[in-house]
Amino acid sequence: MSNLQSGHEAAEVCDLLVVGGGATGLGVALQAALEGRSVLLVEASDFASGTSSRSTKLLHGGVRYLAQGRLRLVREALRERATVLNLAPHLAQPLSFVVPAAGWLRWAWTGLGLKLYQWLAGPLSLGDTVALSRQLLAQGFPGMAGQMGQAVAGMRYWDGQFEDARLALALAQTAQRAGASVHNHTRVTGLNPVDNGWQVRLLDERRGTRRTVQARCVVNAAGVWVDELRQMVQPQLPAGPPLDALVTASQGVHLVVTRACLPLREAVLIPRTADGRVLFAVPWLGATLIGTTDTPRSDAPREPQPMAEELEFLFRETHNAFGLMLLPGDVRSVWVGLRPLVGSAGQGDAAQSTSQMSREHLIRREAAGMVTVTGGKWTTYRSMAEEVLFVLQTHGDVPPPPNGPVDTRQHRLVGAPEPSGSKRHSLSEAPGWHLWGSQVEQVRAMPGAQRALGMGLTEGMVRFAARHEWAFTVEDMLARRWRALFLDARQAATMAPAVAALLQEETGLEPRLGEFLELCQRYMLGD
Q1: Which of 59, 76, 173, 211 is the most buried (most CB within 10 A)?
Q2: pLDDT value at 355 more than 50
Q3: What was the pLDDT predicted at 124?
Q4: pLDDT of res. 256
């Protein structure tokens, strides 16, 4: 990629400009960079700050999609699940799930579906699906009431768990090592078609500086916000009908409670709730995560808030499932993600439940050298990236890859420990040094590596994140580099001033402490 020129001189030039720093965009940038293309990725906020850091932390094939007959989607996701587990074993690991059944017919039907799920995985299965007697359930979950206590039997099956925000960061670091130029807090302010590509104007919101890039191709991977970029492009295209929206937003709310409040060693899946979804309770980073809702939205705010009825639903379903009467003060953090779903968007079908809409992805060529990719799921980010590059090459938007075909299934991510390395820590444990994988010694070598800031975070970790992980704001650090905000919003607010001082010292930029403290309030529930 050429150096940036100012004034009226030539703009910066690249083969591919990727807009969006979530799982999909980062996957595309990595794929293209490994193929030898010059790549620039820009993210308006922080990497994975939208949907990609707000998942239920499950790297799964989609058990419930079996009932919808989407076997192709399940097969692909199960294959990609195994790939991601190999690419970043410190951030993605197998996890056992227990499913209680209130009656024998329901138990038999559930067992059949889960056996099919294991069969579809074939040699990539993570473990056997086995029946659990009522006695075994009681031993594994002592003191449980509700559906867990009333179940006649249960099933245990295996799926994957991951730390989504740090996996996105590992993708960004790996893409950078492969030659991509990746930037967070950088917004697209304009796009214009030019000879042999697109001229794109960018604003670095950290420093207030502007730049212009000429890209042979633009990939719109802005997640639930892809339609905003599409509307920006439309006036530059030949006259035609207005662009229909591609995406319907679905809101998912998650509650985090202490492990003492809901002590789980395995994840629990409750297969039937009032809105037709499943309910998950998952041990995650020393806490227990409960989710999720599936509520359609007509808008897509950057920081969505839980609706009162969603909170009531989760409290009620938690009581129904575990006999646990949660109080607002029990919730350490409540956070919301928006899923980009492809289906009824633009069709005026508000009655269609988002829980029944496809999680499959869509790739649309908007114009020469302009592709939108949306939908899909975290588990399949890599195969989606492969398909995007295939579409661009098929249409002649990019030439064959300079480095030849690249199999990203074998390219392990930054931080991945060697297969014969030391014992791996479970993602169910509290966050610690192990989340950096093979980079841990670099982190330990930072100044202040032993000075504790709270929740396992040290001064050295903050300095490392500022120097090597694009952490500029307190939110970058305490929401995604370290999951303090998502685990305990009150404690995150207590840690924030010390983190802000370190970030300002390292970067020389305003760390936006006040904004983060306001955000913490939105992740809390009243007592």
Answers
A1: 59
A2: no
A3: 96
A4: 98
Q: Do the Cβ atoms of 286 and 427 come closer than 8 Å?
A: no
73, 359 contact by CB (below 8 A)? yes
DSSP label at residue 420: T
Tell the CATH topology of 94-159+249-341: D-Amino Acid Oxidase; Chain A, domain 2 (3.30.9)
Query: Does an H or E element contain 500, and which?
Result: helix 489-507
Burial 137-172 (b: 16+ CB within 10 A, else e): beebbeebebbbbebebbbbbbbbbbbbbbbbbbbb
Dihedral, CA of residue 398, residue 401, residue 402 and residue 407, to nearest 10: 160
Distance CA 110, CA 173 (A): 41
CA 206: distance to chain centroid? 23
Q: Is the pTM for the entire model greater than 0.90?
A: yes
What is the per-residue pLDDT for 65? 82
- The overall average pLDDT reported for the chain is 91
Instruction: Scan for tokens 């917004």, then name that residue.
Output: 187
Q: Show contacts of 457-464: CB within 8 Å, 24+ apart.
A: 457/431, 457/482, 457/484, 457/495, 457/499, 459/498, 459/502, 462/499, 462/502, 462/503, 462/506, 463/502, 463/506, 464/436
Strand 58-59 to 153-162 pairing: antiparallel
pLDDT at 350 over 50: no
Strand ranges inside 455-506, DSSP E: 457-458
Q: Is it true that domain 12-50+166-246+354-410 has CATH number 3.50.50.60?
A: yes
Q: Please give the Cα distance from 258 to 262 (Å, whole number).
A: 7
C-alpha distances in Å from residue 286, one per residue of 256, 395, 428, 484, 523? 10, 48, 6, 11, 18
Do the two domains 12-50+166-246+354-410 and 94-159+249-341 of this chain adopt the same fold?
A: no
Q: Structural domain boundaries of the chain?
A: 12-50+166-246+354-410, 94-159+249-341, 433-522
SS3 content of the chain, % helix, strand, coil (to 5): 40, 25, 35
Q: Are 257 and 337 in contact (CB under 8 A)?
A: no
Q: Which residues contact 516 (CB under 8 A, 6 or more apart)?
A: 473, 474, 475, 478, 493, 496, 500
Cα separations in angstroms, 29 against 6, 32, 188, 272, 413? 25, 5, 17, 38, 13
End-to-end Cα separation, the chain, in angstroms: 53
At 295-319, the pLDDT tens digits run: 999 999 999 999 999 999 999 999 9
Beta bridge partners of 187: 203
What is the per-residue pLDDT across 52-63, written as a single tens digit (0 to 9) for each? 999 999 999 888
In this structure, how many other beta carbons lie within 10 angstroms of the beta carbon of residue 418?
10
